[in-house]
Amino acid sequence: MNKEKNNLTLQDSITNTVFEIWQQADKETQLQISGNSMNPMIKNGDWLVLKHNSNDIKIGSIIAYRREQKIIVHRVIKIDHNSLFTKGDFNFHVDPVVDVKNIIGKVIAVKNRKRLFRIDTIYWNIVAYIIASFPLIFTRISRFLS
Fold it and tell me: The domain spanning residue 25 has which CATH number?
């Protein structure tokens, strides 16, 4: 039992180190998504380009953040001081509060099977804000279209 506890501690330590390296300012990395919580915009298997330590996160931004030993990618729907409220576009529920220290980066582009498209443009910022402002409406539309 003690050996398992030590292994978890070592695994947690390695994971923490990886997250710290990822959070270095202005670096960009790619991350492949598994799951459907951001349908229809981001689908299972899509690749995301993340900009780390981004200071321009606002309502509507899609962020990657750390929750326990997992990486979650969801949209910011509310900001309150050092806390963010996020939600998957395809989910009905709002996530537990995200502390800014757990943010890995902001999604700036999505690469699906057909193309790479940037979502850090004025057009996408407007669309993202609308989606974040009306989460239940877009959840129902997403489920209807899927």
Answer: 2.10.109.10
CB 103 within 8 A of CB 93: no
Say which amino acid occupies 77: I
User: Is the pLDDT reported for residue 1 higher than 50?
Assistant: no
User: What is the Cα–Cα distance from 134 to 87, expressed in whole angstroms?
Assistant: 11
Task: Give the SS3 label for residue 84.
Answer: strand
Structural tokens at position 100 = 């800014």
Domain that holds residue 70: 2-145
- In this prediction, residues 29-35 reach a mean pLDDT of 89
Q: Which residues of 48-87 are buried (b: 16+ CB within 10 A; e: fewer)?
A: bbbbbebeebebbbbbbbbeeeeebbbbbbeeeeeebbbb
pLDDT at 80 over 70: yes
- Residue type, position 135, single letter: P
Give the predicted TM-score (pTM) of the model.
0.77
pLDDT over threshold 70, residue 106? yes
Write the burial class of residue 34 (CB in 10 Å: 0-12 exposed, 13-18 middle, 19+ buried). Answer: exposed
